[in-house]
Amino acid sequence: MITPNRLQKNDTVGIVSTARKISKEELKPALQLLESWGLKAVLGKTIGAEENQFAGSDDLRAADFQQMIDDPKIKAIWCAKGGYGTVRIIDKLDFSNFRKNPKWVIGYSDVTALHSHIHTLGIETLHAQILQNLENKSKATSTSIKEILFGGDYEISIASNEKLNTLGAAQGPLVGGNLSLIYSLCGSNSSLNTEGKILFIEDLDEYLYHIDRMMMNLKRNGMLQNLSGLIVGGMTNMHDNAVPFGKTAEEIIFDLVSEYNFPVCFNFPVGHINDNRALILGREVELKVTKNNIALSFKK
């Protein structure tokens, strides 16, 4: 995998929205944080644009992202908001210049569509908090992004006594993101090859039976059986029907992977939660799940 260049002070970061609309006013606190890091921000044409719920038309959002890809002065591209819409522009993008001069693409949730597609090109991306509400997340959220962008050593180690965890150790490239997006990309040229890799998943605002459906689809597509490990982040604001499904999201996932022989951890600090740590997708990692601790180490 190719690692984009680390950032330096005075580098320029392009800010775009590939999905839902967002105003310049909403981004002020996050832009002040970037300035405190010594970075310059350039707002794309999608910031402040509006077409129903989207940040402008598909063509505008694609052109905005394309300009950020092709502009050599832009050293990283940070997505301002998620929601839905990124998958609508994937096939409009030309990654020719990006493959020659890769740069960090930053975001999560709906941005999983970009992460997955770029992974197929052999380039690392940064699964991390979108700019919206960055200032309201944990200190560890922003610190983790800064550490990666500026090239510091990076690992995540947390205490854990989760009963559903499957203990063990594993190595492999880290892939994944939002479960709904991974599911929706199956069968496309943006779909992930998970064989021998450590898969990360998280989701928000889904019905429990949807979680079961999506996990069953991954299983039937052979995306679980040859994993090296599985990391489950926040399964946030899950819903149930009047007749209960009978299991939590975590229990659904555990039951569907319990036949396999790889380590699994739950409630990892990533996703639609306050403590949303950054992950380098595509990077070779080591996962250790013990009775009292979970450690994820990123290799240089």
From TrEMBL:
InterPro entries: Carboxypeptidase_A_C_sf, Class_I_gatase-like, LdcA_N, Peptidase_S66_N, Peptidase_S66C, S66_fam. It holds the Pfam family Peptidase_S66. Residues 13-128 form the LD-carboxypeptidase N-terminal domain. Residues 171-287 form the LD-carboxypeptidase C-terminal domain. CDD domains: Peptidase_S66. Keywords: Carboxypeptidase, Hydrolase, Protease, Serine protease. Belongs to the peptidase S66 family. This is LD-carboxypeptidase. It comes from Aequorivita marisscotiae.
